[in-house]
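=== Structure Prediction Worksheet ===
Name of assembly: unnamed complex
Input type: mixed (protein and possibly other molecules)
Chain count: two
Listed entries:
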Amino acid sequence: MTEIVLDNLGKSFGDFTALKDMNLTIAQGEFVALLGPSGCGKSTTMNMIAGMLEPSEGQIRFDGKPMNGMPMARRGVGFVFQNYAIFTHMTVRENLAYGLKAQGVSRAETQRRVGEIAQLLQLTDLLDRRAAGLSVNILQRLAIGRSAVVEPSIFLLDEPLSNVDAAFRAVMRQELKSLQRQFKQTMVYVTHDQLEAMTMADRIAVMDHGKLLQVGTPIEVYNHPADTFVARFIGAPGMNLLDGRITGGDSGPVVDLGAAGHSGPVTAPGTGPVIFGFRPEEVHPDPNGPIQMAITMVERIGARIILHLAEGPHVAKAVLDAETQVPDQGGMIRFSVPAASVRLFDAQTERAL
Amino acid sequence: MQRSLSFEIFRYTAIALFLALSLIPTLWMVSMAFKPIAEWQASGADLTWWPENPTLDNFRFIFGQSASELIVALERTAGRPILASLLSATFGTLIAMFAGTSAAYGLSRFGAGGNLPLALVQLRLFPPMAVMIPVMIMWAFLGMIDSWWGLALIYGIVTLPFAFWLMKTFFDDMPREIEDAALVEGCSRWRVFLRITLPMMRPALASSALFIFILNWSDYLIALLLTTRDWVTIPVYMASLSSSMTGQLYGAKAALGLIAAVPPVIMGIAIQKQLVRGLTFGALKE
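=== Predicted Assembly ===
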């Protein structure tokens, strides 16, 4: 239960700037996901919080205390590595007890806490097995247990679920979340999977190219992306973004989309080039709809249909209920987008308008 | 995988040929070690694959109990050379492993030593003959000629590059996250190295040590130049097993060769588990 402050944090490796001007305050007991594609600086940020890397600029503070130069052993953080970093020459029990032993916790106490965490993570039956040769799913729980057992005030997880299979990933998402509710640690979670971030985090920090683009609750980030990158990155599939121009219409300004028609009335500050954004789920098939696009592919995935659309320079996707009647591949579809669901972005800066 | 029958036949023939090439000479040595003089001296028609009258005379001979048929007296017995080989090869291996492992860890983890690897490879480019004469002079100055410790020191130096290179590859392959994980849990660097890194490196240490021990164990040139009588090693001693009267004492040589094969084999068996287990570091995703 520690508040983490990242103050103008920056890191460069020689000429390469991995992170720049990172400002983020993570409240006590908060679960924050650092989300972004590989190379966006999220792991660098995490490693600096843990103390594996020294910041080139700026400061990290835990509860107001500057952490720059503090060795990682004294920061009180738990770290779960992407590749688990299990000590394979030890048994499960020895792995779990390792941190407590290093901190000089008494034998009886170690025994008790190892037993507890093993119970919680369903590792009790495996305590005396050697860690080498255990399955990935078990190694993953062991890695979490080994970090959790010392009850660190800050828990850092570096893509812990990226190697486990899909079914187990869903289970672990829930377990991690309930674990965090139980221990009430401050949790920082690095991931490139927007679904993990959306389902677990209290707040998401979206990063790209070493910059923090947006911080907010999952719903905020989903509904009001700060720029086109966030819009595309959050949601599966991401937001549709079409280049258009704002022109005056009969009933107020509309976005002219060229061959694809035009949008419904929008509230826009002026005229000129704009990026017209809408979620694939907000496509409403409508024979009189103002937008018209060709269907290039129809994907039926059980409960939903995903349409791949194209028209002139524009490409888009639409997510519809399975019952919706849609033309086949090669056909045309007309649709409308509710005005409340339209997001406009500046054509130059790509920032939300 | 489904393989055709002809391929299987080819494969096993190749394996059998290879085994024959490598094992028949060894078997010949074993057989000869137990032959009485008449049999190993025999040529042509009398040659037998297996000793017809097996005897331990060859062993008795090299340990100083003169066998009835061999009239030659030995200048010295095999006991001392075996001790010399054991001491110099073991301590040489320890020196090389200790220095090589430390250097490799420093370079692999902290980049200490910059161009050291290249310099060490260059060391291997020298023909040993070219370096050995200066070494001989230095060792004479230091009073280390004809001593097991002088030999152990030069063995350690000569095999250090091997130890370094082998261990460096192993350290490079070991994920740093494992050490970081221990550091985050509150361990000191030293403790991490001793309790995590080295134990996980056990298979690497074992296989490197065996390799280097065998190099040292079978050295002839260095021992020939740096020892004279008290501490000659097995290979040098073996070369001396001949006389103007009898010619090469093949039976005695075979007996000694058989003894010389024992320590590496014992070592190999002892660390077999480590060798076979291989290097499954950290149970990582692949």
